[in-house]
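quick one before i forget lol
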Amino acid sequence: MPNGKLSLRIFSNLLRWKLARLTWVLGTFLSACAAAQATNPPVITPATGVYSTYQSTATITAEPGATILYSVDGSAPSLTYTGPVTLTNPMTIKAIANLSGVDSTVTTANIQSDPNSLPVPRNGLSLWLKSDFGLVLSGTRVSRWSDLSGSANANDAVQNTNANRPILISSAINEFPAVNFNGTSHFLNLTSGLTDLTSGFACFAVFKPIGTTAGTMFATGNTGPSDLVSLAINNTQAQFNAFSGTTASSVTTSAGALSLNDFQSLDAVHNGLGSASITVNSTPSATGTVQNLLNTARTLNYIGTSSTSSGFWRGHLAELLVYSRTVTPSEQAAIEAYLSSRYQLLTAASTPRPIFSVGTGTLSEPTAVAIASVGGAEVYFSLDGTNPSPATSPLYLGPINISFSQTLKAIAVVNGVRSAVTTAIYNLDSTKWTSPNPSTAPPLQLNLQLPTTAIPK
């Protein structure tokens, strides 16, 4: 091959290589420029949290030259921000910033003013779930339960599968709602786990266990299980689990410490020095020696189930506070007082039982029985001898007709707290009424006597 043609081929290949190299450098440069042009998300002040002083306005800031859009109803931002936003209590603000046509990610702030929360320490608070604010619903199902702790790592509890979402129950206790977990499939994933627990751990819950079931209300840990920290309910017992690596330890209350089907408060505190305690309704219920907790990432974090996604919990959860440290006795007492006052746990636990207009006895004829109860109560009743329940029994709306020998039972429910059962056993006089109960119904016999005189036309 002539040297001229060889030189031309070498030059052509070299030119192709330089063009490819230039293309790669230019692409890298443009990508870097695009990354550099990404718009930073705006900052909302005050940020997400429960504030003990009233918050009247919120400001939204972004990088110079950016346009800010916001919303105050949880919808996509669409209002142009021109100055401080007047806050109602509570309020969810969402905002985005746009710079040179590039939108930022959305910033969300759930802001609640609650002066009664002043006793609650914020230091070390890693999770605060309140059923009256910060929930995102799909119908009545909870898809997101926003963390109101204000911690750097927002620990929202989320569930993307509709069938696994718990259900919001309105006016469950003291006119506050609660989130209902069914014990078979409902649970929420925490977006962040707890890491450094070398200074201890504390958990406070206002909840109602339903039925005689076992399950885990709160869990953070890893596979194995390892480094597990959890609060489990087993019928009328509560158990706090503390794992150091795969070495297990626990503290468990005696049977009967919890009241089934009633709201109550439950504390579990690890002091960081090898000891833990459980308190029910401000009354110490168990204490014992446990493993100290480690500083390690925990990737399996749930509300309503264990770290292995089994052992689903059944009950209603109204509020949950979790600390990545121990709490002092005075702090514990202050948190308990806040929860007890907010939900009226001590006074609400004494709902009077309903009163029947007719007591146990033999009835000479079918009778209508009225039921009286305290103001604001809902009354549920049964006629088959079973104990009534809000979930399965009819709501009393007016006098009940007793047409057979039957057992009437009723309960009164005020703010989610039920009374003891009132019972009356009625025996219908069988000499006059030959069907003593609904299951025995002999053929109807009529003695018809015709008139002896003709009816005038």
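fyi Residues 355-428 form a domain with the Immunoglobulin-like fold (CATH 2.60.40.10).
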